[in-house]
Amino acid sequence: MTHEHDPRPEDLKQRVWESIQRDELPPQDDRGRMRLVMNNLVLHLHPSKVAKPTLKFTYTWGLGGLAILLVALLAATGVMLMFVYTPSPETAYQDMLKLQTEVWFGQLVRNVHHWSGNLLLIVAFLHLLRVFFTGGFRTPREFNWMLGVVLLLLVVAANFTGYLLPWDQLAYWAVTVGSSLLSYVPLIGEGLRNFLLGGPEVGAATLTNFYGLHVAIIPLILMGIVSFHIWRVRKDTLSVPHKLDGMVDGTEGTQVEKVTTLPHLVSREMVFALVMTGAILLWSVWVNAPLEAAANPDHSPNPAKAAWYFMGLQELLLHFHPTFAAIIIPALAMGALILLPYQRFDLSAEGVWFRSRKGRQMALVAALNALIAVPLLVVLDEYVFDLAALLPSLPTLISNGVLPLAAILLLLIGFYDGMKRLFKASACETRQSVFVLLVVSFVVLTVIGIVFRGEGMALMLPWEVL
Amino acid sequence: MAAKDLSRRDFLNIAWGAAGALALVEAGGVALSFFSPRIVEGEFGGVIEAGTADSFPVGSVTPFTQGRFYLVRMQDGGFLALYRKCTHLGCAVPWNPAEGRFVCPCHASAFEMDGQVINTPAPRPLDRFAVTIVDGIVKVDTGTPIQRDHSNPNELVYVEMAT
Ligand code: HEM
Ligand code: FES
């Protein structure tokens, strides 16, 4: 019998190292670099090669990567906060004070968590806009768009549940108002709200529920779907930027050049992450997360505003019956958002900012329309029209809900038709202009809610509000 | 008959599938009951003794912070307990004695002394709690807020006249 010997080197140190890192480090050639990406747990979320034009910063603006960085920062700082925070009405606010005065770097860690959470909302929204305006949702990427919408909702949910935890006046009343929106869901609304709050009003049970959701359920689902999302990006490959004339952006022709992910993409990601981490730290050193007086269930502050990202919704609530403002209109918007990639799309528009030259002009016109029309409608509704008073015999569900919504849908149809004729545009370009109209309207409503609504929710000038 | 076509393998597959689905439904039921709200402890949610009927002057509104209601005594002497939670989006509505009405700080809903809506966006009058007067003592049951579409004089509770 012959004994076969292990052919590997006898040097223990080298054997241990090679059992951990199988590929040569640093890799010597492109094949080595690609193998390294394939065999690395984290890196293999990337493909081993990417289209060179997609590296262009002004195509993706690094927004998806920034969102991942923010999730990582939130997880790190969030876990730290868990060690100094107890979710009970007796201790929560005290813990926040201690965090800011007694815990070393407590204020800084809180600030990074707070600002990263808020920035994540903005970044996720901008990322959505980037994908929309470059046609990045086109076949085969429809489903990944849907995952993205779910991620946006999860980020909103994470922010909303986190908002309650400091247990100050801001937290208490924003969550009271925000969760009351649920009670307008027909039939099950009241039950749903009681279930979420753990009782009829925001209290100890609510804090427990929100804490569990905020530190366990939502982050787990969020991180799971984020991984799924980037894995799908790898499977579907990133859309490639094109110029108006159909040329691939950054090259001379229509040929797409590929480069290895390592180092071309990874090094860019690392540098961007480092710069953004620095920027967030710097901001957090200078600007503190707000903390108001301790929560007082007996006294609602005036005005009691929702969290800033719900201001658009809050503004709608001032103009529509709550069933419409809080349920029907958001549900319609969400449905349209999810189904949007399944619409017909001009093949030549993929990777082109705003579809085409015509698309750009139309987007601009739509944005201007919204910028003028929305403030006008808000002011008219505030001071001139009062449909409910004009039509006292009708239930407000009709006079403040069905009628104005029908009017707005008619206006939208008119806008679509008018734009299409005026510009002799394709359906794809016209649909984009309707999207622009709606998004800008939403942003304008949010801004009105933040800076033009003061005491008693009356309209006033920003310097009177702040 | 379809039943004859059902092979042994199909039958087992369906049976296992059904057992799995049943297990899922059961797990869902367990989770739902596990997370359902516990009874509200403390004073709110129980019956609260407000005091003797004569201690509340006619035409007065008295706040009960613990019980989260206002005890209203109307001009005709009738009692009414109003839940202080705004029917719009749940803010705590303060009584404004100068204007003689409830005005919500959140979105400016206003309510009459009997809870009737003066100013929207509130969709319905303030909810009320059941009031009983036993031996001249006013008691308010804060267990279940009673929703209503209009305020109604029948809701007022009077002191039984000794005969
Ligand atoms: C998806 C990501 C997350 C977002 C958007 C988010 C957002 C927020 C927000 C807006 C607050 C309020 C904090 C403030 O006003 O300063 C908060 C607080 C808190 N979060 Fe998160 N968070 C996220 C992830 C996490 C994770 C992963 C954990 C822990 C595992 C966590 C633990 C905490 C704790 C303990 C607090 C209470 C302390 C405080 O209020 O500052 N968070 N979060
Ligand atoms: S909560 Fe009272 S008016 Fe909105």
Structure description:
The complex is a heterodimer of chains A (466) and B (163). Chain A is built from 18 helices and 2 strands. By secondary structure, chain A is mainly alpha-helical. Chain A has 3 domains: 9-43, no CATH class; 46-306, Cytochrome Bc1 Complex, Chain C, CATH 1.20.810; 319-466, no CATH class. Chain A has a two-stranded antiparallel sheet with strand order 1-2. Chain A starts with 11 loop residues before the first helix and ends with a helix. The radius of gyration of chain B is 25 Å and the shape is elongated. The model of chain B has no long low-confidence stretch (mean pLDDT 83). At the A-B interface, helix 8 and helix 9 of A face loops of B. The site of FE2/S2 (inorganic) cluster has 11 residues of chain B, from loops.
Low-pLDDT sequence parts of chain B: none
CATH architectural category of the largest domain in chain A: Up-down Bundle
Specify the biggest β-sheet of chain A: 2 strands, antiparallel
What oligomerization state is this entry in?
heterodimer
In the CATH scheme, the class of the largest domain in chain A would be: Mainly Alpha
Question: Strand order, biggest sheet of chain B?
Answer: 1-10-9-4-3-2
Q: Which outline of chain B best applies? A: elongated
Q: Write the H/E string of chain A, N to C.
A: HHEHHHHHHHHEHHHHHHHH
State the CATH topology of the largest domain in chain A: Cytochrome Bc1 Complex, Chain C
- How much is the average pLDDT of chain B? 83
Total count of domains of chain B: 2
Low-confidence stretches of chain A: none
> Cα-atom Rg of chain A, whole angstroms?
26 Å
| Distinct helical segment count of chain A | 18
* Computed Rg of chain B: 25 Å
DSSP E strands of chain A, number: 2
Shape category of chain A? globular
Number of helices of chain B: 2
Distance between the termini of chain B: 81 Å
CATH superfamily grouping of the largest domain in chain A: Cytochrome Bc1 Complex, Chain C
